[in-house]
């Protein structure tokens, strides 16, 4: 870009027209709403499970799988979604010796379960579940996982796996030992039953214009004017970097941008590879830029 007789690196125009990233909520305001599990920041998702039903008692000896999904391409094609937290209300029958164990996988933009990443709860400074006992006749607890602004990320589907372990006193009496139910068979032991009253995902939805992004991609091959191809590449680079910046914690970022192209724009694998190659080649020509390696998530 020529400015006052000097050649300066061109900066991409705002990408807000194509995809939104931020909310108007401030950190303290968001933290307060999450602590109160305020319904104003609840993202309404569809609950699906073949193993159990909400508000119904079940035998927790075997692993239960459930998921919350948005079906955005069908119902919310002009939105992408950010997860800020997760909350479950779990109840046990009286004097039950069971302890719930939860594993969570997040799918950012759709596709199969294999295109989800495992949430590293209580690892490397990642948040842990907070349990709050409820004033009910049963043993009921609110299990809340708060990601907040620091750990927020895109989501389309949240997969939750629930298994149980048996809590028992250790030989010294002042420590707890956990057993898997199938490894600890004692007819006198009251395993009890379990139920989940509700599951909520907290976050917010943002503007998304797939047609406008497709138009940018079209300009890679058929530019409108001289220079519009470079402008389109700059904007796609900006979108790619901002999407991948919201990758979950890890040694390398996940390639969320390819997942966006694959599942929300419905591009073929070869088209995604071609676009990524064009962006890498263009980025290599820019002054003072450093590209980064990503880990493949979506096929």
UniProtKB/TrEMBL annotation:
InterPro entries listed in its UniProt record: BRINP, BRINP_C
Q: Which Pfam families match?
A: BRINP_C
Which residue intervals define the domain BRINP C-terminal in the entry? 2-299
Q: Which PANTHER family does the entry link to?
A: BMP_RETINOIC ACID-INDUCIBLE NEURAL-SPECIFIC PROTEIN 3, MACPF DOMAIN-CONTAINING PROTEIN
Name of protein: BMP/retinoic acid-inducible neural-specific protein 3
The species is Grus japonensis (Japanese crane)
